[in-house]
Amino acid sequence: MENGTILKRDIASGIDNGNSQFVGPSYDYHEVMKVKVVTVGDMSVGKTSLAVRYAKHEFIESYNETIGASFYVRSIEVSGKTFLFQIWDTAGQERFRSLVPMYLRDAKIAILVYDVTSMDSFDAAASWLKDLLASSPSSVKIALVGNKMDLSDQRAVSVEVAKSFASQKNLAFIETSAKTGENVDTLFTMLGEMMLEDADALDRQISSDTSTSSPVVDVRNVKFPSQRRCCRS
């Protein structure tokens, strides 16, 4: 399942325009863990490029601006567990920002993207993070992603500065290049590992709750005193 199952839907304001297409083998969706992933960040930081690179192994130099959101899906196997990443690529334009909370509903992971060649986009990440924390479930995992790392001669945001910000805010961090593909698969593998940690923690909690619960008595092995039946007079 190296390429997985790929599904792309172009969606404007949450409405499927009917241009859905499946690429790849049929797949039993009941065997996977579905994970809703939402990308956020300023326009032109490469959110769509990241999603397309991961889902379709392609890079297109220029895209039309995302209207509302686009939807991509790809499956991945991490440590024997299969995840189906349902990636909602949101628009970065200010006029669509009010729609982001709608897409964050039920999200498991948020990818906060900035452009390593743009300090403005990095500064804006703090504002996007504030929106994320206010609008997303408390359990959501957030990854800070510096895109366009291939443009090293134009770098404006150092790795150290971004790492420090991520550490202060308790975010996962990685740099990527949607153009070359560098670290894109690594990013989603990292996200899968984050979900595995949550699943393992839940299993441990369930196991702990079970072991400390009241013992179960097998009534088949319990002898009850015989009941006397009263005779009618």
Automatic annotation (TrEMBL):
Protein name in the entry: Ras-related protein Rab-5C
InterPro entries noted in UniProt: P-loop_NTPase, Small_GTP-bd, Small_GTPase
Keyword Transcription: no
GO molecular function, one term: GTP binding
Pfam families, per the entry: Ras
UniProt keyword annotations, A-Z: Nucleotide-binding
PROSITE patterns for the chain: RAB (PS51419), RAS (PS51421), RHO (PS51420)
SMART domains attached to this UniProt entry: RAB, RAN, RAS, RHO
Family from the record: Belongs to the small GTPase superfamily. Rab family.
Record keyword Nucleotide-binding present: yes
